[in-house]
Amino acid sequence: MTIKILAFGITRDILGGSSLEMQIPGNTRVADLRATLYAQYPALQKLSTLAIALNTEYASDEELIGEKDEVVLIPPVSGG
């Protein structure tokens, strides 16, 4: 299945754009997607944290990604 991944902050720079379409097999967990992204974009591993949200909510590594899910990469955030 094809999913669209939205990227913000430093993840946008690492991926080279604000979104990315990726082919993944059915029954892909968030942890599987994270491993695939780390393999294709090693600079992502250097981030202190990288949260992944599905449909506007933070996702656990065990959650399955559906074909119509909105996937968002959330890099470390700081501010005051």
TrEMBL record:
One of its GO terms (molecular function) is nucleotide binding. CDD domains: Ubl_MoaD. InterPro entries: Beta-grasp_dom_sf, MOCS2A, Mopterin_synth/thiamin_S_b, ThiS/MoaD-like. GO terms for biological process: Mo-molybdopterin cofactor biosynthetic process. The keyword Ligase does not apply. Keywords: Nucleotide-binding. Pfam families: ThiS. It comes from the Bacteria. GO terms for cellular component: molybdopterin adenylyltransferase complex. Belongs to the MoaD family. This is Molybdopterin synthase sulfur carrier subunit.
